[in-house]
Amino acid sequence: MKKIMLFSLLVVSMLSFANEKSAEQIMDELREKIAKREEAKLREEQERLRREEEVRKEKELLEAKKKIAKEKEAMKLLKEKRRQIVEEPLEEKYIRGKDKAIAYEKALATAESRMSFKEVKNSEDPVVKEYRTNISKKYDDTNEEIQKNLAEKELIEEQLKALDELEEKVKNW
Questions:
Q1: Nearest-CA neighbor of 106 among 87, 117, 93, 115?
Q2: Helix (H) / strand (E) containing 84
Q3: Which of 13, 75, 102, 172 is most buried, most CB within 10 Å of its CB?
């Protein structure tokens, strides 16, 4: 029985000794755990950086879209203003004025600005040059006629004023 006991003790000690881990094995397991934790932290950090990069790119894309939308709106407004300048009939714009001569002068000034707004790119073309000189002569002649009419109008107004004063003197006499 002693032998059996000794034998069982021997077997138990051998089994317990076999199950025990050496210091190197324990250190290796700890290193593996630490390495896994560091890898997980590194992955989390990379994921966070990737999300931040995506958010930054989305913001840049949104800003670029807003800028493009603003530029489109500005171009749309410019086109509308250009259309108004070029296509709006001068009669509608100035016919409502009380003094028709001043309204006509404004209409001519607007027409001249429209002409400068609609410049032809190829100004070396003789047909274009002739057309411009004819239009310029026409507007210059019209402008001179307006000036003459205004001077005549002032003269007539002065004469009417003098007649009114004379009529008043006759009535009072």
A1: 93
A2: helix 23-87
A3: 102
User: How is residue 97 written in tokens?
Assistant: 């004025």
Measured CA angle at 91 (ends 103, 148), to 5 deg: 40
Per-position DSSP letters for 72-126, written without gaps between them: HHHHHHHHHHHHHHHHS-HHHHHTT-SSHHHHHHHHHHHHHHHHHHT--S-TT-H
User: What would the pLDDT profile of 119-173 be if each residue is shown by its tens digit?
Assistant: 544 455 666 667 667 777 777 788 888 889 989 999 999 999 999 999 988 888 7
Q: Among positive and negative, which fits the CA dihedral 29, 33, 36, 42?
A: negative
Give the residue, 10 or 52, on which the prediction is more confident: 52
CA distance linking residue 79 with residue 86, whole number of Å: 10
Within a 10 A sphere around the Cβ of 104, how many other Cβ atoms? Answer: 20
Mean pLDDT on 92-112: 68
Distance separating alpha carbons of residues 125 and 131, to the nearest angstrom: 10
| Cα distance between residue 173 and residue 161, in whole Å | 18
**What angle do helix axes 126-172 and 100-117 make, rounded to 10 degrees?**
170
